[in-house]
Specification:
The protein is mostly helical and 322 residues long. Helix content is 55%, strand content 2%.
Length: 322
Amino acid sequence: MSIKSDKYLKGIEMAPYDLLREGAIMLAVVFVAIILLASLFSSPQYPPVTSKQMGYAQPLATMQMVASVLIDQCETETYGPPYNDNGAPQEIFGIAPAKWFGVTIPIDAKEAFVLQPLEAVATMNPDIKLALAEYRNASHEQQLAWATNYNNMISKAKYEDRKIVGLKEGDYGPVPQLVYGMLLLSRSGLLEAAQNMTEWSPYLFNFTNSLLFIQNSGLNTVATTLDMQGTEMGISHETGPWPGAWWLWPYAGFYQIPPMLTSNNGDIQVGSIMIVIFLLLLFLPFIPILNKIPYWIPLYKLFWRDWYKNQRKKDLHDEPTE
């Protein structure tokens, strides 16, 4: 050590510590724990959920997502800030931080998720071009009536034996062509790019639109088939052979506890709890009563057991004899 550190530590008894040995032991313990836990609670092997994968594996869910967007009932459209003013932002004790900043990422779900992506391919598909023209030239009331009729029909349809069962004729206007066009665009693997290209750029870094679109109901559909909804296992239960976001487990764990489990304000409630826990840990040495916990639960004596063992021997050796 340096002269300065020697002077600073003068009079303080030092103890040897084998860092490599302790690290090797912990590595072995963690390795065994991972193998045991993975064998008991392993997640199914499932490919990443993309619009292309959804288009082939869950075509009905893809069409239902599009229909919900066209009737202005998708989750993004009714979420509120930062996307729009259509919904009530989450709040806790009457405080809604989202209101402080307002709409910072304005999104017209119908345009961003459906109509603009279809515009990108309309020049190559005359049927979609005609359907878009008919839809845009209609009044908002007519658009909503068409989409509502179609949504009511397709919400009752089922996907069985790789076929969509229950599709019926009705007064849907050009909506079926728009929905089917989105399904084809999804299966082509180009839907994400069409949704995210809000402005020309040689590089694409903003995936907000495509992620919000597939999150509206697509991810929930896949999660339901895998028994992996948020109310069942939370964010820490991920697919694949590798450990998930285990460092988020304390955060995700609160989502499994009422009232956060079913509350519309669950996100801000869990976030507030984590902030309080972080502040408690940060200022623990200065909080009365709580700063006495290490003395009441002397784990430090376990970590430094070799030093205390030698110290007891030294004390016994130094005791005066009669």
